[in-house]
Amino acid sequence: MEITKANEETVNILQELLQKNYDAEAGYKQIMQKAENTVLKQWLQDKAKQRSQFANELDGLIRNLHATPVKDGSLLGSAHRAWIDVKTTLSSNTDEAILEECIRGEKASVNEYEKQLEKVSNFSDVNNVVYNQMVSVKTALNTVKRLEDISK
Questions:
Q1: What residue ranges do the domains of the chain occupy?
Q2: How far apart are the C-alpha atoms of 35 and 43, rounded to whole Å?
Q3: Looking at the predicted structure, is the pLDDT value of residue 101 above 90?
Q4: What average pLDDT does range 109-127 have in this prediction?
Q5: Rounded CA gap, 110 and 135, in Å?
Q6: What is the DSSP string of 80-141?
Q7: Choices 3.30.470.30, 3.40.50.300, 1.20.1260.10, 1.10.1740.10: CATH for 5-151
Q8: What confidence category does residue 123 fall into, taking pLDDT thresholds of 50, 70 and 90?
């Protein structure tokens, strides 16, 4: 079955969010390996699992709209992970550098979700999933900010 024109924009939005979650999951897994603090490692692992769950939810929504989901993250996400490698290697405090990057990444995710949420208001099931994921990302942002404050 072909995707209808009415659903095309929604599918594109969901594809973008899906890629962002693939990128976030890969990023969390990568920096988890570099983290020194066990509490931080566990938090990063939990966030990687959460982003995998988000990706699965988005994948399902895309399939329900009769489209084929993207399979992996973006080129920009790969470049950002390479930058994180360099930054954490050069940093004297790896955990602090990790927390700074997490804050930056979570802020970008919140902004992306807020921007995309406005565009999917016509589809209640899509809107609900995107909204709930956005709330979870905002909670993660607040948590990582507290973790950064504690680590200083």
A1: 5-151
A2: 10
A3: no
A4: 88
A5: 8
A6: HHHHHHHHHHH-S-HHHHHHHHHHHHHHHHHHHHHHHHHHTTT-HHHHHHHHHHHHHHHHHH
A7: 1.20.1260.10
A8: confident
- The two tokens of residue 65 are 């709209």
pLDDT at position 16 is 93
Please choose, from the candidates 60, 58, 64, 65, the residue with its C-alpha nearest in 3D space to the C-alpha of residue 15.
58
Output the CA torsion sign for 3, 9, 15, 21.
Answer: negative
Cβ contact 64:9 at 8 Å: no
pLDDT digit string (tens) for 57-97? Answer: 999 999 998 899 999 765 565 555 555 555 555 456 688 88
pTM: 0.85
Whats the size of the chain, residue-wise? 152
Evaluate whether 27 touches 84 at the Cβ level (below 8 Å). yes
Token pair belonging to 127: 């809107």
Residues with Cβ within 8 Å of 46's Cβ and at least 6 positions away in sequence, in order, are none
